[in-house]
Specification:
The complex is a heterodimer of chains A (about 130) and B (about 475). Chain A has about 130 residues and is α+β, with helices and mostly antiparallel strands. Chain A has two helices and nine strands; from the N terminus they run ββαββαβββββ. Helix content of chain A is about 25%, strand content about 45%. Chain B has one domain: tRNA-splicing ligase RtcB, CATH 3.90.1860.10. In chain B, the strands form four sheets. In chain B, strands 7, 8, 9, 11, 15, 16, 18 and 19 form an eight-stranded mixed beta sheet that branches. Chain B has a seven-stranded mixed beta sheet with strand order 1-2-3-4-5-13-12, with helices on both faces. A two-stranded antiparallel ribbon of chain B has the order 6-10. Classes of the chains: A alpha+beta (about 130), B alpha+beta (about 475). Chains A and B meet through helix 2 and strand 7 of A and helix 8, helix 10 and helix 14 of B.
Chain lengths: ~130, ~475
């Protein structure tokens, strides 16, 4: 699994790939942290759990990442460990992370622009565009 | 899409006809020179403009301005009008930063007499105008008070001593959109917004001190109170986390609305609902509330800028005051009446990275601007120039009363960071006499002038096209950003 940035004129775009959907979601979150250049404290993790609903798998991905954007802004937390369950139009996540020391870039939102999770030889891939 | 697909109308106007793609409902009309088109031909702006032309209920043409560039669905620099009430409203065609916009304040402080205080002014502005990722505002409002901000916008600021009547009169929609519905704004959006009011944010948001460098229309400049060689202040920001969350909520909500109303779109970010549907009305109420938040936000920052000017200049001169020139939005959806094919039609004008530019005599302008037209503020890239224009009668008939909003990017942020070092850029700007206070050097590099089009060329294009008229050129002397 992994991710790489794709050039975009005004916003930020990243290609993410992983062997299965929960891993794709987790790697997308790590990609978002990397784009934002998030630095966190070390030490015992903080835990959070949430559920999200969506009309399809792409909606669930947007809902999941949007939840992380909210945690970052409201609770100053960033997450690097994910236990994600996906079931049709619902998902649940138990996540672990730490307090943020610094963030270089504010991610305003996760967009649906050209968002399509596709099955490929390396599992699943998606290109995500963030509004910054 | 390439330039050969376009039909050239004249030196500054082009069209993408509907035969280019079968799902286009209206043509796309572009205001640009060939040189500006060649700068964006490799990004996706034109494809996005064609996608925008598939929205149900469109009238006239989709308009794209010369500062256009690729967005995340709707092109930046785009304008699209849908017929009220059955046409659609699309949150993605307005943007996440609802009512991102610019306020211009002006003074009679001569730069030459104030030159020695510029460094201090930059420091004090930086102190009073919070900026940076996640930074809270200078004042806190509780959630109950926030509802008044959402409902009343600048009128809330007036009631609480942060504004004057003159400020409101010289703000688009007097800083308060009717029909704002705080109940349509989610608790999550309110949680994000209530601590951020009175703050700049980060990215391309800034406070900038400029000098009036050249005047092109003496009468209009006098009416606005722009004097050659005198200081002005621009404030560029929007609705912060509250607006971002409102758009996020409704783009998510509208994923099912398009299924419900049988709307087929080439890009999910363009999701929409009929304006007279429950979903459309809910978003309209929320969007107006977020817009009011942004008006109040810029009003609070103007109050803070005035505090800074008082602290630096009041003991040296009597007339240190900043008066408002105008405040305009460049991400907004507004119900307006425009002439289309000879008929007056009520439409929702979506502007994303485009500015309202009403001509002389237009409704909603204060008396002094009814004669000259509505001021249009065009912030350039950092370290170059900014412009003040006025709307024209031609803009009303050819661009839904709209003009460009800035310089427009040509380079990705990551490329800008590879090519430009923030510390070197800061030194270069300071060496040119521009005081810089930046919370993030990588963020500064992303906003390097080389990442943007030539704003003079963009302004010359709208001027040559006749949809705006030049009034004054401003030169930066201090930049404050997150």
């Amino acid at each position: 699994m992994g991710f790489e940035e794709i050039p975009h004129t005004a916003d930020w775009s990243v290609l993410v790939w992983a062997r299965d959907l929960p891993s794709l979601f987790a790697e997308s979150a790590r990609a978002m942290n990397a784009l934002a250049e998030t630095v966190t404290t070390q030490g015992p993790h903080v835990n959070r759990a949430f559920e999200a609903k969506g009309h399809d798998i792409e909606s669930l991905l947007v809902a999941f990442l949007s939840e992380l954007v909210y945690f970052q802004e409201q609770e100053n937390l960033a997450f690097d460990t994910f236990d994600i369950q996906i079931n049709s139009q619902r998902m649940s996540a138990n996540i672990e992370g730490n307090e943020i020391i610094s963030v270089d870039k504010a991610i305003k939102a996760v967009t649906y622009h050209n968002l399509k999770i596709e099955e490929t030889a390396r599992g699943y891939e998606v290109v995500i565009v963030f509004d910054v | 899409m390439n330039i050969e697909n376009l039909v050239q109308i004249n030196e500054t106007e082009w069209e993408i006809p509907t035969y280019i793609r079968s799902d286009m409902r209206v043509p796309v009309r572009l205001f640009a020179t060939r040189e500006l088109l060649e700068q964006i031909i490799n990004d996706k702006s034109l494809d996005q403009a064609v996608n925008a032309a598939t929205l149900p209920g469109l009238v006239g043409s989709v308009i794209v301005m010369p500062d256009m560039h690729q967005g995340y669905g709707f092109p930046i620099g785009g304008v699209a009008a849908t017929e009220y009430p059955h046409g659609v409203i699309s949150p993605g065609a307005i943007g996440y930063d609802i009512n991102c916009g610019v306020r211009l304040l002006a003074s009679s402080i001569e730069f030459d007499s104030a030159r020695e205080q510029m460094d201090m002014l930059a420091t004090v502005l930086n102190k009073y105008c919070p900026s940076g990722v996640g930074k809270a505002g200078a004042i806190k409002v509780n959630l109950k008070e926030l509802d008044y901000v959402l409902r009343d916008g600048s009128r809330w600021a007036l009631k609480n001593g942060y504004a004057t009547q003159a400020d409101l009169a010289r703000t688009e929609e007097t800083g308060s959109l009717e029909g704002a519905d705080p109940d349509m704004v989610s608790e999550r959006a309110k949680a994000r917004g209530h601590e951020q009011i009175g703050s700049l944010g980060a990215g391309n948001h800034f406070v900038e001190v400029d000098v009036v460098d050249e005047i092109f229309a003496e009468e209009a400049a006098n009416v606005m109170g722009l004097y050659k060689g005198c200081l002005t202040v621009q404030i560029h920001c929007g609705s912060r986390g509250l607006g971002h969350q409102v758009c996020t909520d409704y783009v998510h909500e509208f994923q099912s609305a398009v299924r419900k109303y049988g709307i087929d779109l080439p890009d999910r970010e363009l999701v929409c609902a009929p304006m007279d549907s429950p979903e459309g009305r809910a978003y309209m109420g929320a969007m107006r509330a977020a817009a009011n938040f942004a008006f109040a936000n810029r009003q609070l920052l103007a109050y803070s800028a005035r505090r800074a000017f008082e602290e630096v200049f009041a003991n040296q001169m009597r007339n240190w005051h900043l008066h408002q020139v105008y405040d305009i939005a460049h991400n907004m959806g507004k119900i307006e009446t425009h002439e289309v094919n000879g008929k007056q039609i009520k439409v929702c004008v979506h502007r994303k990275g485009a500015t309202r530019a009403f001509g002389p005599g237009s409704p909603g302008l204060p008396p002094e601007y009814k004669k000259i037209g509505q001021p249009v503020i065009i912030p350039g890239s950092m370290g170059t120039a900014s412009w003040v224009l006025v709307g024209t009668e031609d803009s009303m008939t050819r661009s839904f009363g709209s003009s460009c909003h800035g310089a427009g990017r040509v380079m990705s942020r990551s490329q800008a960071k590879k090519e430009v070092r923030g510390d070197v850029l800061r030194q270069e700007l300071e060496a040119r006499g521009i005081k810089v206070r930046a919370g993030s050097l990588p963020g500064l590099a992303e906003e390097a002038p080389s990442a943007y089009k030539d704003v003079d060329m963009v302004v010359e294009t709208v001027s040559a096209a006749g949809i705006a008229k030049k009034v004054a050129r401003l030169k930066p002397v201090a930049v404050i950003k997150g």
